[in-house]
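We were asked to recover a plausible sequence for a given structure. The inputs and outputs are reproduced exactly as logged, with field labels preserved.

PROBLEM: sequence recovery
POSITIONS: 254
GIVEN STRUCTURE:
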């Protein structure tokens, strides 16, 4: 299977000297859905920002990340950002147009598509995000769950090969979480999801990578890792309740 993301010995230090990533290496195959786990401050968000070239600021100095085989360089950064769609943790950081339709159209417009193509992409993405009919709504009047879905629609409208999500279900009520998970399940892109929502991990992801202090401390099948109570507790996580009962999709060691 082809590799969507290759990370080889990736390190990153913020300007104030904080060492956020320390020699990470892993690959993600096309079509995989991978959970990124780890306690707060373990480097998950920093890693996600590297996947579409938002970090490091000096592109080209660090060839440790490759997307669909290509290193991220100043020359191909536009292509990389088309291939990797990043949904931020806080929808208010992502939504900036007055209406949902304008917001979702922004990405496709940057791709230089015709008005008709942009409009078709917007309608399709709104439907994929469960927001059909929401195009004329004001973004700042949406509920939190609707804002999250509007962000997802904006990213999907660019038809990325890789979808990267930072804590997509935090602050959602149970129904919002259920709806968001159902939407994600329908999206065929390669997915990397940083989350503390272990139910989401069990239900959607086949593989989990655990980070702690900027390093990969475990990488393997979700059922194996999440059932490893010692590993989970050692890295500020817990064995999820959902795995304490039999789950139809995830058997022990699977
Ligand atoms: P996580 O997403 O797992 O909570 P982060 O990637 O946000 O982890 O943070 C990793 C480390 O980098 C933490 O020590 C955090 O304090 C630090 N950090 C994050 N953003 C910045 C920043 N803009 N400047 C300095 N340090 C930062």
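RECOVERED SEQUENCE:
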């Amino acid at each position: 299977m082809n590799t969507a993301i290759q990370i080889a010995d990736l390190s990153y230090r913020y300007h104030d000297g904080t060492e956020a990533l320390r020699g990470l290496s892993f690959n993600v195959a096309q079509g995989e859905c991978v959970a990124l786990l780890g306690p707060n401050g373990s480097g998950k968000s920093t890693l996600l920002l590297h996947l579409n070239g938002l970090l490091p600021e000096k592109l080209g100095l660090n060839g440790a990340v490759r997307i669909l085989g290509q290193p991220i360089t100043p020359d191909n950064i536009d292509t990389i950002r088309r291939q990797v769609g990043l949904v931020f943790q806080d929808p208010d950081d992502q939504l900036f147009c007055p209406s949902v339709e304008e917001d979702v159209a922004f990405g496709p417009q940057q791709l230089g598509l015709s008005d008709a193509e942009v409009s078709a992409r917007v309608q399709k993405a709104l439907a994929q995000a469960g927001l059909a009919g929401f195009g004329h709504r004001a973004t700042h009047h949406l509920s939190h769950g609707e804002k999250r879905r509007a962000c997802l629609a904006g990213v999907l409208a660019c038809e990325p090969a890789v979808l990267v999500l930072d804590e997509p279900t935090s602050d959602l009520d149970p129904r919002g979480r259920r709806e968001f998970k159902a939407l994600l399940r329908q999206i065929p892109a390669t997915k990397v999801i940083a989350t503390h929502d272990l139910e989401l991990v069990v239900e959607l992801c086949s593989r989990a990578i655990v980070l702690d202090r900027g390093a990969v401390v475990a990488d393997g099948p979700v059922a194996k890792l999440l059932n490893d109570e010692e590993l989970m507790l050692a890295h500020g996580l817990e064995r999820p309740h959902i795995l304490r009962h039999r789950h139809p999709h995830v058997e022990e060691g699977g």
